[in-house]
């Protein structure tokens, strides 16, 4: 019986394949490529996708990861989960004027889960999830490409048939190993693109399931159409591009399910032909399904628009200079040039950069610029493909080319500047989804060449070579994304005119303590972009620390002149002016900084230092108190309050402040030291000793800790222990002020005691 059932099923499968063969040519026919069972094909794709990016698993948090993850309070357990739905991707309130309006709460939620499971900011778990997501997406691509390249057909049992196993495997491999995807996979912030792509593909596959019982478009599942809309909404909550899947589902429905001839439809519309039903437009269910998709998409967009505060995001000229150009011609030319660069990154992903802004791509301002050739080449290719997609007599060719162009162009539209200004010039991460269209067109071109080529092996070896080169390029690029130093330096050769690249290299060097090298890169960033206020601020800070105060003041004054609301530059200018003993100007600069950033604890701390220098003790204490209210863990402000109260003889108040500070920051050894000094002066020797010993245990190499403990023992009469700690202090710092004198006094006293005892 088992044998009979098996034999009975074979004709059904053959009939299904035969039905497809009658209407569509087999894309795999004549193609010299690997033919693997579906399970093995997916295993191979997953393995190769993993090999491409595996070396990024132990990378650091780099570039935008700092703002989106480390500095994002929405990841921490104390932040209510509900806040994720009112904040942007970077943790700012959507209603804020400075918000980028990037609304991706589900992506932030996955970051939060990563953080909670890891027990802190450990990047390995974040990277591993990104790699797994890319492998999963690449596996799904096998099914997606089998539909896009081979069509949507089901067996009599409702099982979807893969009618292009060779070409769908090739297309999935091309997608899995494309080097332009490195930013999304190796950069943790790329999680937004990966999650968006995952639900984007699930939405498409869900839409295809709606036609499992379909007979020429008449029967379909409303449930699966609605599931597809819901998955599209989830994709958009991961990243904005996700909403475009609803448009692509409509295109797929028209072309594949209803076999609509677009050119024929246009001609009939122009001639007001009433036989539109024959053209496929009014076939049963198509308009209803498109209405569901459109109404679902419109509702999602409206809700999102309401949540983000109905206002567009605010970007600066350096983010996207073309969008600020006065001339419509200049804007149009440069937008199209950016499109050509994105196309080139898909074709030849060799020159990759973490950031393409700030002069990396100079504006085209005249028709005589040689880069116009790139625009011409792009539109020549696009127009050629569009003509073939519309006018070819081969319906199979029309369908594949239209789907390829659709998947190439439609997901890119949110990044195109056509509907709203975007905050970048070129961004490799936004090509993750459009690369699906590129893979379709490349694979279709390979199939056509294979059918015509006499030496098919050479063609197959060439494609294998491309795949191998891409794998190696992915591995190399992934290693560059493992640390900020490698990432930033890799960009110097790609975008030498990008001020932000030089700025980031300089910042990385400064963080490592190499100030001389950092100055060089900061100066170059300011030279390339004379209005780069952040580079001026950081350069001014280094010069301030090197006591080059005049140039520091010039740079910081220029920064606040260019950007009057730059609070950090105002504060740093105040510090420089304080060092130059121009106290009134310094005070004014500090208050200007606080005016532009109300919650600025560091500025209150520096203001307190100014008041202390001017002997305005009450004002100093108030400023430091403000700093600790805004930032309870501000150790320096607490310490200065204790020291000032101690120095002015307010021991009881100093003790109260010290105890309050240690309750908030119990493991801060500097606070233990300051409070121990106060307790010693109050003759609370036992408690003072305990705090000194605890501070020394936390920081055993602090000469002052040993020196002051020795003074305590000296006062207390415990002379042997005093001698021991004086000696330790002098060993750690032979030039410690006062310690040598106190030690000599103690030695003389001990000698006198010995003489009396003798």
From TrEMBL:
InterPro entries from the UniProt entry: O-mannosyl-transferase_TMTC, TMTC_DUF1736, TPR-like_helical_dom_sf, TPR_rpt
Ranges where the DUF1736 domain occurs: 311-383
Gene3D superfamilies reported for this sequence: Tetratricopeptide repeat domain
Matching SUPFAM superfamilies: TPR-like
One Gene Ontology term, aspect cellular component: endoplasmic reticulum
Locations listed in the record: Endoplasmic reticulum; Membrane
TPR repeat start and end residues: 499-532, 533-566, 601-634, 703-736
Membrane spanning stretches: 31-53, 131-151, 163-182, 188-208, 220-237, 286-305, 372-391, 403-424, 430-449, 458-476
Protein name, as recorded: dolichyl-phosphate-mannose--protein mannosyltransferase
Lineage: Eukaryota, Metazoa, Chordata, Craniata, Vertebrata
């Amino acid at each position: 019986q088992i044998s009979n059932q098996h034999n009975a099923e074979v004709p059904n499968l053959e009939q299904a394949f035969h039905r497809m063969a009658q209407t569509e040519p087999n894309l795999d026919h004549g193609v010299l490529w690997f033919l693997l069972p579906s399970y093995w094909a997916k295993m191979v794709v997953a393995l190769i996708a993993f090999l491409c990016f595996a070396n990024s698993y132990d990378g650091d948090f780099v570039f935008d990861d700092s703002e989106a993850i480390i500095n994002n309070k929405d990841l921490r357990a104390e932040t209510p989960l509900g806040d994720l739905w009112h904040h942007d991707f970077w943790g700012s309130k959507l209603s804020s004027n400075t918000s980028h309006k990037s609304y991706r709460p589900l992506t932030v939620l996955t970051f939060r889960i990563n953080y909670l499971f890891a027990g802190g900011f450990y990047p390995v778990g974040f990277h591993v999830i990104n790699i797994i997501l890319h492998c999963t997406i690449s596996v799904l691509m096998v099914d997606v490409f089998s539909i896009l390249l081979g069509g949507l057909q089901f067996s009599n049992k409702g099982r979807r048939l893969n009618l292009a196993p060779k070409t769908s495997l090739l297309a999935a491999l091309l997608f899995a190993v494309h080097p332009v995807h490195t930013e999304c996979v190796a950069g943790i912030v790329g999680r937004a693109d990966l999650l968006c792509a995952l639900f984007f593909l699930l939405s498409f596959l869900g839409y295809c399931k709606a036609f499992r019982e379909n007979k020429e478009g008449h029967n379909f599942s409303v449930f699966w159409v609605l599931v597809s809309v819901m998955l599209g909404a989830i994709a958009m909550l991961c990243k904005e591009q996700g909403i475009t899947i609803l448009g692509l589902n409509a295109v797929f429905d028209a072309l594949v399910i209803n076999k609509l001839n677009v050119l024929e439809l246009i001609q009939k519309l122009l001639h007001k032909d009433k036989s539109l039903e024959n053209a496929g437009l009014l076939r049963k269910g198509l308009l209803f399904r498109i209405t569901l998709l459109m109404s679902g998409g419109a509702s999602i967009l409206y809700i999102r628009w309401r949540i983000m505060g109905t206002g567009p995001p605010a970007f600066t000229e350096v983010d996207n200079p073309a969008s600020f150009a006065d001339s419509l011609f200049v804007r149009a030319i440069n937008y199209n040039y950016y499109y050509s660069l994105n196309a080139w990154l898909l074709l030849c992903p060799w020159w990759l950069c973490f950031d393409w802004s700030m002069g990396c791509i100079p504006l085209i301002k005249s028709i005589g610029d040689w880069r116009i050739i790139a625009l011409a080449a792009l539109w020549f290719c696009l127009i050629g493909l569009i003509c073939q997609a519309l006018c070819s007599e081969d319906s199979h060719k029309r369908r594949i080319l239209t789907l390829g162009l659709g998947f190439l162009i439609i997901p890119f539209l949110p990044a195109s500047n056509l509907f709203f200004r975007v905050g970048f010039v070129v961004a490799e991460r936004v090509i993750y989804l459009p690369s699906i269209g590129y893979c379709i067109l490349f694979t279709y071109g390979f199939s056509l060449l294979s059918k015509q080529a006499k030496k098919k092996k050479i063609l197959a070896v060439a494609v294998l070579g491309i795949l191998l080169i891409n794998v190696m390029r992915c591995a190399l690029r992934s290693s560059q994304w493992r640390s900020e130093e490698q990432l930033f330096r890799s960009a110097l050769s790609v975008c030498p005119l990008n001020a932000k690249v030089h700025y980031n290299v300089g910042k990385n060097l400064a963080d490592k303590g190499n100030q001389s090298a950092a100055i060089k890169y900061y100066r170059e960033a300011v030279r390339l972009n004379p209005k780069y206020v952040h580079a001026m601020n950081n350069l001014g800070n280094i010069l301030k620390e090197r006591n080059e105060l005049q140039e520091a003041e010039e740079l910081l004054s220029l920064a606040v002149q260019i950007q009057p609301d730059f609070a950090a530059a105002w504060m740093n200018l105040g510090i420089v002016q304080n060092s130059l003993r121009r106290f009134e100007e310094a005070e004014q600069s500090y208050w200007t900084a606080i005016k532009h950033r109300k919650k600025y604890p560091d500025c209150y701390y520096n203001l307190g230092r100014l008041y202390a220098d001017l002997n305005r003790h009450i004002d100093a204490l108030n400023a430091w108190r403000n700093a600790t209210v805004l930032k309870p863990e501000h150790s320096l402000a607490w310490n200065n309050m204790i020291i000032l109260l101690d120095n002015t003889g307010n021991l009881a108040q100093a003790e109260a402040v010290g105890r309050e500070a240690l309750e908030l920051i119990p493991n801060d050894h500097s606070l233990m030291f300051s409070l121990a000094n106060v307790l010693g002066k109050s003759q609370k020797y036992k408690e003072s000793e305990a705090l000194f010993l605890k501070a020394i245990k936390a920081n055993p190499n602090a000469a002052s800790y040993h020196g002051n403990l020795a003074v305590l023992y000296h006062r207390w009469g415990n002379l042997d222990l005093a001698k021991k700690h004086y000696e330790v202090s002098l060993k750690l710092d032979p030039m410690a002020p006062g310690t040598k004198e106190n030690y000599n006094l103690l030695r003389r006293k001990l000698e006198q005691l010995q003489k009396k005892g003798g």
